[in-house]
Amino acid sequence: MIAQIQRNESGYIAEFKRELNHPAYKVWAMLIDNKRLKEWFPELEVKELGNGGMILFDMQDGTYEEMPILDYVEGKVLEFVWGEDKVRFEIHADETGETSTLLLSEKITFLTDHTPKDLAGWHVCLDAIETLLNGRALTESKEEWDHWYPQYVEALKPLQ
């Protein structure tokens, strides 16, 4: 299912939700352990964790964009700057600790031609996290992205 996207007082918010059959600590490692992070988003690198910490985005041209961490709660919350927007991951463990819910929200200031590209990208990333946690190899992400991109283009049309 695609993200829920709606207009709010400061722009827009896209919310993704994944129910995962994995404990929260394993999901958290996918977000903050650079080795695991590289498996599903090779351009990202955690430079320093914590409020005021930094995530780097490798621009693939020898430069890096610094993305400050805005909110951090060990094992539960990671929010950082994403261009003009903000990306927030939240992990909620179930009462048994065996499964968890991963929420990703992107707070979008302005809709642009790039917005559906980012949303399709996040969708593919979340699918990749689940695939890796399930111990399976990733398939070609470009094909997956090509599948989801037009759906996000259509989902954004009523909001423009």
TrEMBL record:
Domain of life of the organism encoding this protein: Bacteria
Residue stretches making up the Activator of Hsp90 ATPase homologue 1/2-like C-terminal domain: 22-133
Pfam families: AHSA1
SUPFAM superfamilies noted in UniProt: Bet v1-like
Family as reported in the entry's similarity comment: Belongs to the AHA1 family.
Protein name: SRPBCC domain-containing protein
Organism name: Paenibacillus urinalis
Lineage: Bacteria, Bacillati, Bacillota, Bacilli, Bacillales
